[in-house]
């Protein structure tokens, strides 16, 4: 289940770094190592310059393991494909503020479908772009790398954005989680947590490690 408040720390291994030939086993390995959520990066080759997987993989993870599915749609038209990911078993669906859709309407549709709603922004996107939607979300995802490919280095320049997201949450009496995705490992996780994040997406530092260790 999704933690009730942003005071709960969450570890969310990214399936993008797993062995796709052993998705069920890789998900089970993450769960047994202490993962709280499974993060699934969906890329369409348009919004970002890479293609990952679609609803069928989300459904396969959903049917093979009992874990909260944090589905991150890095796609141009999240509003068009939304029903397919709801049907596939997503628990939380995050869409980008930069994508081609009516952001408020998409967030409303996610919640009406019974899922948690997340909103993401890229490192170069001003924080002001998400300000109108903060009372409509359950999670704010601050990308700490340029989205599209795994294994990139953590961008320290995003830390002030994370701190601002936490400040706005406090000032407005809101309760959204702050998630970070990109370059998260033993050295960078403490920085993100200190800035105000509580959901840590980790790919290379988890699935590519000899033994998954929670930070």
What is the alpha-carbon Rg in Å? 16 Å
CATH topology name, in short, is: TIM Barrel
Termini separation (Å)?
A: 20 Å
Give the helix/strand class. Answer: alpha/beta
What string gives the helices and strands in order? EHEHEHEHEEHEHE
State the CATH class: Alpha Beta
- Helical percentage: 25-40%
Q: How is the main sheet built?
A: 8 strands, parallel
Shape: globular
The CATH architecture can be named as: Alpha-Beta Barrel
Number of separate domains: 1
The CATH superfamily appears as Aldolase class I
Q: Counting H and I runs of at least 4 residues, what is the number of helices? A: 6
Number of strands: 8
- Strand numbers in spatial order across the main sheet: 1-8-7-6-5-4-3-2
Q: Ranges with pLDDT <50 over ≥5 residues? A: 209-215
SS strand fraction? 15-25%
Mean pLDDT: 91
